[in-house]
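Sync notes, pocket subgroup
Present: LS, DG
LS reminded everyone that the earlier model was apo-only. Rerun requested with magnesium ion included. Inputs:
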Amino acid sequence: VVAGKPLLEVRGLSKAFKGVQALDQVTLQVRQGEILGLLGPNGSGKSTFINVVSGHYPLSGGEVLFDGQALTGLPAHRIARAGIARTYQIPRPFKHMTVLQNVSMVAMFGGASLGREEATREAWKWLEFTGLQDRAHALPDDINLHQRKFLELARALAARPRLVLLDEVLSGLTPSEINEAIELIRRIRDQGSTIVFVEHVMRAVMALTDRIVVLNHGKLIAQGAATDVMQDAEVVNAYLGK
Ligand code: ADP
Ligand code: MG
């Protein structure tokens, strides 16, 4: 694979809800092996971008190409099988399954389609990767927020994705938990996944991203290196609500 070639391309991506244009003609590329930061004020369309690209919401217009293959309009399970995994801003584990079962379910049905035994081995691998092995037999309600956030990551990784869409995985974490998560996200990229990283924690954005894209009212208003883009007048005004 040629490093830096586009893995995901979206062209003119639009999503309207009743009365709200949540995404308005967004065109961007995510390059193989990069961590692309997706930023913007609350309500700017970041989660909608993840929901539409992953097939959780139908799009209203535009195209999604993944490794050159059109994914436009495919249902979520087909997109997962093509190699795109996502996390939820608010973790959504299966509440009545243990941490281990939550991860092995994804290994069985979330894209990699492993058999039960192999899925269990795969799940242990990701629990160790995220440091959750000691909580393997706990229920999601009995682990803390930090662990639930890392469980979201473990579940996404168990699908063996080529592209991971991370929606505010750091929100609510303490500074030292954030440091741990930054390291973990680096390791996710190093083991071969490309990452779209939706985040408000600027320290993490600066530490992790190769490039950022900024949305405002559903429109892409700037892209480039984080240090440059965050000084762009239109971006500053968007954050100030002007
Ligand atoms: P962000 O993640 O950047 O904070 P969202 O993508 O969640 O923003 O939301 C973008 C806009 O779309 C907001 O105005 C929000 O209210 C609206 N929106 C998002 N999801 C839905 C939905 N399921 N139904 C109706 N409106 C929605
Ligand atoms: Mg959001």
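DG: The chain has two domains: 1-83+163-242, 95-160.
LS: The chain has a mean pLDDT of 94.
Action: DG to write up.
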